[in-house]
Design a protein that fits this description.
The chain is an alpha/beta fold and 262 residues long. Helices cover 31% and strands 16% of the residues. The structure holds zinc ion.
């Protein structure tokens, strides 16, 4: 809901843009928000959203970590606007009572990279040769939180949902918005993708009209990244002090700056 103050800020948008370029990473209460796409007005995506939500035979459920709900780089709000059968559920784990659909234990898959000691996962290429699931589950959080959410949800998912991993290459360092047109935030290693891209890639495989749906979602993500990239400034690696093992001496290592624009 926009307030009168927001309206005034809308009028001042041009004057504020330079300031916003410098302060995009800080939370500004005055920053106008588009009431339709819920994104800051300078990066409004309405022009790129489909006129009608795209229908799918698959039901898509995104478990959205509570810390991420307000994050402006989250792709989940856009995803639920674009797909007629996508729903976001806020929480830290999937359990009975959270989603009436999941309570029925439908044939489902959930997207997360294979991790040591995790339940067996199949790849997208393997999924192509199986009967399509009726429900696709994704997790939207930082990687650390998502790993915890998956671990905490697996008891509930056991028996009806299969873990599916997009082919992730851990030997390749993760990219950032600066070196890929589809990555919004720093990813831990190569092949890690946003929730939206993971869902798009999977629908591309399991939907009858998959390639078209995938193209439309990826195109939208590309536009979202293009707009966002205009508000990011490259950050230099920053030195981080760590203790040298055993001697208590300090050595300097360089750590990639994980600050994000939000
Ligand atoms: Zn908008």
């Amino acid at each position: 809901m926009e307030t009168e103050e927001d309206d005034l800020n809308n009028n001042n948008l041009d004057l504020d843009l330079d300031h916003d370029l410098l302060s995009f990473s800080t939370t500004s209460r005055r920053r106008p928000i588009c009431p339709n796409c819920s994104r800051p007005s300078p990066v409004c995506l309405c022009h790129a959203l489909p006129a009608q939500p795209i229908p799918t035979t698959t039901q898509i459920i995104v478990l959205h970590h509570p810390h991420e709900v307000q994050h402006k780089l989250s792709t989940t709000p856009i995803l639920t606007k674009c797909l007629s059968n996508a729903t976001a559920v806020v929480g830290r784990r999937l359990r009975h009572g959270l989603s009436p659909l999941l309570d029925q234990s439908p044939p489902a898959i959930y997207l997360f990279p294979s991790t040591p000691n995790s339940s067996p996962a199949i790849t997208l290429s393997q999924l192509r040769h199986r009967r399509p699931p009726s429900v696709l589950i994704a997790f939207d959080a930082t990687w650390k939180h998502a790993r915890e959410m998956v671990r905490a949800s697996e008891d509930f998912l056991w028996g009806f949902a299969q873990r599916v991993c997009l082919e992730v290459d851990e030997s390749v360092k993760g990219g950032t918005i600066f070196d890929s047109e589809l990555i919004l935030r720093k990813e831990p290693f190569g092949g890690c993708v946003t929730t939206m891209e993971a869902v798009a890639r999977t629908l591309g495989v399991i939907e009858p009209n998959g390639p078209d749906i995938e193209d439309r979602l990826v195109g939208l993500l590309r536009e979202m990244v293009r707009l966002q990239a205009g508000y990011l400034r490259p950050v230099m690696p920053r030195p981080k002090l760590v203790k040298k093992k055993g001697k208590g001496e300090k050595v300097v290592v360089v750590e990639e700056d994980e600050r994000e624009s939000s």
